[in-house]
Amino acid sequence: MKIVLQYRASAGFRSQIAETFGGADAVAVIDEADEVAFARAMVDAEALLHVLKPVTPAVIAAAPRLRLIQKIGVGVNTIALEAARARGVAVCNMPGTNSQAVAEMALSLMLAVLRRTVYFDALTKAGEGWRPDADVLDAVGEIGGRTVGLVGLGQSARRLATALEALGARVIYTARSEKPDAPYAYRSLEALLAEADIVSLHAPLTQETRGMIGPAALGAMKPGAVLINTARGELVDEAALAAALAEGRLRGAGLDVFAAEPAPADNPLFRLPQVVAAPHVAWLTPETLARSLVVARENCRRLATGEPLLHQVA
């Protein structure tokens, strides 16, 4: 079976792939920027391991032997699901494999925004560590004693909630429906935005959630609140967020995802010192990759034997 991974894989990741799949040549690893090599590889590929670059209808149409698109992660919004269904190509994801990494990244972004880590790092390295702007000192804060609102209560959000409570935060959440097993107070989105000092997004991107944090939602947030997004960039109206931050209505934002990725240098959010940004790497740790490759290998084995696939979404 020919398996293709479209990703700029590090040496460490390539080593993990070879170890998991049984050899350096078991998976064809194609850099996302090399469209010619990718198109050539997909001509006879039966399984595609998909990370970030969208799998378009054209990609599927140009891969006549393709039988499986295996998402390395959870969200499948970057896959042309209808085109896959029309061709009979199975689409699978792997819930839970990146939950720990995403929870830790969300927490790190909260801390970086509240403690202005990036600002103090640059100041200290410039030899000016004891001469910070006094207004910045007034703007720092702790997680303990604050209310954190989680938008979505999947596995990463639940792990994050445990850590937040250990640090002394109060956790509330909203979701499509109230979770009977959740030990946290449920709120409507509107009530959560009005109550939370920190709002952390953990919702999938759907037609219902696209743009959910727009001008009205941002206006409903507590003055001085912080927004964290490790879910999907298109959940947030970036222009409205930039305006709310520039006007001082919000304290800051920690963002790992953006509407356009890779995010261009002229994104207005990048001009704001109270924004901490990362390039969609919340999920990306060697531990996540190890767990993900085990699932991918098992689904490729099942594809070859005709067994039911794990976590098939289409």
In short:
This protein has 314 residues and is an alpha/beta fold. It has helices at 11-21, 35-42, 57-61, 81-87, 99-115, 117-125, 134-139, 155-166, 189-195, 215-220, 238-246, 286-305; strands at 3-6, 28-30, 47-50, 68-71, 90-92, 147-151, 170-174, 185-186, 198-201, 225-229, 250-255, 275-277.
Keywords:
about 325 residues, alpha/beta, seven-stranded parallel β-sheet, five-stranded parallel β-sheet, 12 strands
Strand order of the largest sheet: 8-7-6-9-10-11-12
Structural class: alpha/beta
**Mean pLDDT score, rounded?**
97
Whole-Å distance between the termini? 21 Å
User: Which stretches are poorly predicted, pLDDT < 50 over at least 5 residues?
Assistant: none
Spell the H/E element sequence: EHEHEHEHEHHHEHEEHEHEHEEH
Tally of alpha and pi helices: 12
* Strand runs, count: 12
Strand content: 15-25%
Can you describe this structure?
The protein is of the alpha/beta class. The chain is built from 12 helices and 12 strands. It has helices at residues 11-21, 35-42, 57-61, 81-87, 99-115, 117-125, 134-139, 155-166, 189-195, 215-220, 238-246, 286-305; strands at 3-6, 28-30, 47-50, 68-71, 90-92, 147-151, 170-174, 185-186, 198-201, 225-229, 250-255, 275-277. The strands form 2 sheets. It has a 7-stranded parallel β-sheet with strand order 8-7-6-9-10-11-12, with helices on both faces. Strands 2-1-3-4-5 form a 5-stranded parallel β-sheet, sandwiched between helices. α4 links the parallel β4 and β5. The protein is globular, with a radius of gyration of 21 Å. The mean pLDDT is 97.
